[in-house]
Amino acid sequence: MAERLCQQLLPTVQVFSRGLYANAAYNVPSKVSSFLSSKGIENVQHHSTQLSADDLKNADLIFCMEKIHLERLLDRYAQYTDKLYLLYDFAYDKEKDLIDPISLEGRSFIKQAEILCETVTAAVKKIKQQYGDKL
Predict the structure, then answer these.
(1) pLDDT given for residue 23 in this prediction
(2) CA torsion sign, 110 to 111 to 112 to 114?
(3) Dihedrals φ, ψ of 62, to 5°?
(4) Which pLDDT value is given to residue 47?
(5) Could you tell me if 77 and 62 are in contact, meaning their C-beta atoms sit under 8 angstroms apart?
């Protein structure tokens, strides 16, 4: 979801999503497609992909939704400390985990999906402020 939201807001920037525990058999649930459709994002195709060292090397910014994931990456790839961030912290300058809405249902899913959307929007605003002419 975060990948698609970023792509919509930063259409000239290469954005990709990776997972620490990705499963290639993952299919986008209809609730995710419906939510993204409500945000103007149609035809969502996604194949879950495991994060690689090359992904970290080639990325300019790397965002994690949970502190535990960030810490694992920092422990394993200390050379990329300058581009690894907790998404909420980057967006709002406040350390906080984001709940991945994928495992939720109903109003809980919508609430967390909206929080994710708002956080991505705030992060993109900050990216545009910091990198504006380079985008």
Answers:
(1) 65
(2) positive
(3) -130, 125
(4) 67
(5) no
> Mean pLDDT in each 10-residue stretch from start to end of the chain (135 residues)?
91 88 69 86 75 93 95 95 97 95 92 96 95 75
| Nearest in space to 15 (alpha carbons), one of 29, 31, 1, 30 | 1
**What type of residue sits at position 69?**
H
Whole-number pLDDT of residue 48: 76
What are the helix (H) ranges across the chain? 2-9, 30-38, 53-58, 67-76, 87-92, 106-131
Residue 87 has which token pair? 């998404």
Question: Helices 106-131 and 2-9, interaxial angle, to 10°?
Answer: 40
What is d(CA 97, CA 24) in angstroms, rounded to the nearest whole number? 25
The pLDDT, as a whole number, for residue 102 is 86
End-to-end CA distance of the chain: 21
Burial 44-65 (b: 16+ CB within 10 A, else e): eeeeeeebeeeebeebebbbbb
Domains of the chain: 2-129 (3.40.50.2300)
